[in-house]
């Protein structure tokens, strides 16, 4: 039992999640380029190599450097190219097969003057998600950016990259399938126009529930390696597939309002929340199945207030730890900076280096 908030990882579940997604990609005949932004761990990253994964996706040049140092040599930075980071791209491209995303011809031109190493550029496509990328319907602009890449001195077209992040607004497997298939259908015209360019698609909800990804050639989900309570609510996974949880010391109990004070706040969980039925949850105790009236009601910097049913309140003891599933495992892992395994080992995390 740990005296302070501690992030626990069950590597058996991690391995099962990796094995399942790898098998799915193989069966669907798409290249699996997993996103490492969730775990950000060299130790966990090596587990993917056991299943033949050779190419990975990251979210920043700093993360790319972290994994280059561990022997990965085919890396996509799935974030729009940042001109101010050109020295990082240059350095990384000299050490690995590096790719990143672009949205405009202007950025391609600017980067081409700053980088002298060969590098791949995906054109980011927006499937009406509204976060980033060229709208999938704007084929003239897509063609313009593609032409700029082909005429550049240092870049080659890596293909198209699409993240259907609006699946996170769904609340059932059926809704995920409907929205994902709609996004993939919109990409069909793109694939017909440029059949030789790879199309990378993938968010954890889509990749968890779909079995086919036509017209995509590649998938790059990330959160699936751990999952979390948000993914349960979305319909991507079951609680038994969540590989991480927080151990939070129970420091006080409040009988009159059936609440428990734990050491575990926003600096540990983030303030990510999700609406569950008639309440807003900031975390879900693993004993949740005992009562639907037990959930993390609020978070301040270090404090966590767990609202309990009468039965659960009586079971929880001061001086023990409460195990809590995070709402968003990516953010919780980033904040905690390291993992403790179920058998007591400590694993690395980029933010802890």
From TrEMBL:
GO MF terms held by the record: D-serine ammonia-lyase activity
Keywords of the record: Lyase
Pfam families documented for this protein: Ala_racemase_N, D-ser_dehydrat
Xref: Gene3D superfamilies: Alanine racemase, D-serine dehydratase-like domain
InterPro entries to which the protein is assigned, alphabetical: Ala_racemase_N, D-amino_acid_metab_enzyme, D-ser_dehydrat-like_dom, D-ser_dehydrat-like_sf, PLP-binding_barrel
PANTHER family linked to this entry: D-SERINE DEHYDRATASE (PTHR28004:SF2), ZGC:162816-RELATED (PTHR28004)
The protein's name: D-serine deaminase, pyridoxal phosphate-dependent
Organism listed in the record: Gracilimonas mengyeensis
